[in-house]
Amino acid sequence: MRSRAAARRGAAAESDTAARAVCSSGFTDRMPEGDSAGESIHGKPSAIGNFFKRLGQIYQSWLDKSTPFSAVRWTVTVILTALYMIRVYILQGWYIVTYALGIYHLNLFIAFLSPKVDPSLLDDPDEGPELPTNQNEEFRPFIRRLPEFKFWHSATKGIIIAMICTFFEAFNVPVFWPILVMYFIMLFCITMKRQIKHMIKYRYLPFTHGKRTYREET
Q: What pTM was computed for the model?
């Protein structure tokens, strides 16, 4: 009897071990499928992400191609500005948006006129980015804090965003516009006066005239 009970216990143990082995093997077989499914969901970018990535590449490509044509770029910006002003004049509103656009362009213009390294922060004032004052001095080009291309790009984006805002009534805040005009003119005069004093104090001009060349005499 004892031998039969022991045989039954051994058979039960063997069946239990076999069942555990089958379960573990089935679980391990299913793991790679789950991992591959996860990789297909999280590893690969979505169609929307690919679309915006491709759109950004096309936009950057057009920006790179337009870099040498500064006159054409600024002509387009002036036309957009004129269209925006005509729209604001016809609608008789959105003066706050126009005022914010003017302040933004003024800040861009000041950065365009300012040197990349502020001479007031240097220990030696002679190390500032000043241009030569006579023919015997070494040629040193003026390096701007805001380059011309970035100035144009930011200004154009500001105009387009302001144009989009005119299509939403939420941005049409009622205000007495002559006060905004007077305040902007006063702010422009004060800012430009301070910028001109800075130029005179540290002896620099925000323009590079080009290096002087000499012709050989025959």
A: 0.67
Q: Which domain holds residue 149?
A: 69-116+143-204
36 pLDDT band, cuts 50/70/90, is very low
pLDDT band at 19 (very low <50, low <70, confident <90, very high): low
Which is nearest to 111 in space by CA: 144, 89, 81?
Answer: 144
Cα distances (Å, whole numbers) of residue 114 to 43, 107, 129, 147? 46, 11, 10, 10
**Residues 212/139, Cβ–Cβ less than 8 Å:** yes
Residue 35 lies in a domain: no
Distance from C-alpha of 183 to C-alpha of 107, rounded to nearest angstrom:
15
Residue 109 lies in a domain: yes
Task: Say if 3 falls within a structural domain.
Answer: no
211 close to 146: Cβ distance less than 8 angstroms: no
Total tally of structural domains belonging to the chain: 1
User: Which pLDDT score is estimated for 45?
Assistant: 66
What's the mean pLDDT when you consider all of the chain? Answer: 78
Contacts of 172 (CB under 8 A, 6+ apart): 93, 94
Asked if residue 149 belongs to a domain, the reply is: yes
CA end-to-end distance (rounded Å), the chain: 130
For the residues of 63-130, what is the DSSP string, one character each? HHHHTT-HHHHHHHHHHHHHHHHHHHHHHT--HHHHHHHHHHHHHHHHHHHSBSS-GGGSSSGGGS-P
- Residue in the block written with tokens 């920006």: 63
